[in-house]
């Protein structure tokens, strides 16, 4: 009391971590997790504050505000490919006028597709083939019973089929697609993944109608991508029936080809509603072969070699 009374224990100071400190150095798992969450929260707050500050600055500057920065993505940082197609390239125009798909694009042939499977397919693959046949007009499903592809191809040519699609499966799941353009090729081998049948798609629309769909091909920019895009385009009749409002989309992103099938409806002059009809799947090109399917003596235009080709995450081939 003589010394003015004791002030009690001193208030604990806030411990500041040294700048080189890492959360991963904390040995206690629960404490480490707690500190990590706090750190993430702090990061989020700082990011939000910076965003607000930028927005206020833009509003203050009005028309004089600098243009918004374009975020860096793997796509826009892509390594330049010397085979990227220029729309005005005369050589490309000549190639397209004389390649195997030219009769289709000149409206001389009408697509007629045979869809078949690997030997003795299971339920899921069978249903997938049936649903694919409702997407591609003038396509016929044939269930293979031990017949070799080399024997099927001459029969297809004799019956005026323009393309052959083979759906392969592994452990009852569709995992591969072979697309062969008849009668002279080329043949593309794709790895197939993320297959969703119609009943597995949320908020799906009613069954597709028999109208010829429109086809959208996105981001097929190189010579190889152009060839693959033309292969997909030639599966569908050249004149879409717009009254059906159905669209088949092949979207290439980082060499993965995403397939979606939609129906659209104009709600107003500016608003469009879309329903997914299904099925959906993802393809990755494994090889492109000259001529029709020949696993033994086939001449390959392009083969995906992972160790040699996948050296950079920003290098794409399609």
From TrEMBL:
It comes from Campylorhamphus procurvoides. SMART domains: Brix (SM00879). GO terms for cellular component: nucleolus; preribosome, large subunit precursor. The keyword rRNA processing applies. Residues 111-294 form the Brix domain. One of its GO terms (molecular function) is rRNA primary transcript binding. This is Ribosome production factor 1. Pfam families: Brix. Keywords: Ribosome biogenesis, rRNA processing.
